[in-house]
Design goal:
200 residues, mainly beta, Mac-2 Binding Protein, 6-stranded mixed sheet, 35% strand
């Protein structure tokens, strides 16, 4: 099982492999209970949204399941009752957004490449503690946003409900690949909200 077309491994179009071929799931009867099984199976927390109408783009290949009706306790999506016959096309590919999906933005700057670092996680926006916000972390974020290298790391006030802390020991494709902790008070105590001005 995998998610494709999203901004992280915990968001996207639901794809499953059967007999060596990847295919999609039709969105008929697709709901949060089904999406929850997917998120849990992928260790992505719980489902925030069950998406329909190929909202993460149309898949290709076979459509492997239709009328999925999980009860919620299943360990795998293929354990759920479903039909393998379908009357769907790829414009009906099902998708999910899981709670462990992380999405970033810079706010309050002159453009999308400068400002306070904010992360969308578990259904809410949070700030990032600057206690471990160094060149490596800033560099990962700037590159991820397509904004070149970091130039400055200004600090801001925490005004959002949650706080996230990142520690990157080496360059990574995204901050989610680094070590992170959410809403733990100790490392964030007396911190300010991290910001960055990227070269782009």
């Amino acid at each position: 099982l995998r998610l494709a077309g999203g901004r992280s491994r915990c968001e996207g179009r639901v794809e499953m492999e059967q007999a060596g071929e990847w295919g999609t799931v039709c969105d008929d009867a697709w709901d949060l209970t089904d999406a929850n099984v997917v998120c849990r199976q992928l260790r992505c927390g719980w489902a925030l949204h069950a998406r329909d109408n190929a909202s993460f783009g149309r898949g290709s290949g076979l459509i492997l399941r239709d009328d999925v009706s999980c009860e919620g306790h299943e360990d795998h999506l293929w354990d759920c009752p479903a039909t393998q016959k379908h009357d769907c096309s790829h414009k009906e590919d099902a998708g999910v957004v899981c709670s462990e999906h992380q999405q970033w933005q810079l706010s309050g700057g002159r453009d999308g490449c400068a400002g306070r670092v904010e992360v969308f996680f578990r259904g809410t926006w949070s700030t990032v503690c600057d206690s471990t916000w160094y060149e490596t972390e800033a560099s990962v974020l700037c590159h991820m946003l397509g904004c070149g290298p970091p130039v400055e790391r200004p600090s801001f006030n925490h005004t959002l409900p949650g706080k996230m802390l990142y520690e990157c020991t080496s360059p990574q494709p995204s901050l989610a690949h680094c070590k992170w902790t959410y809403n733990k008070s100790a490392p964030c105590h007396q911190s300010r909200a991290a910001g960055v001005i990227c070269n782009g």
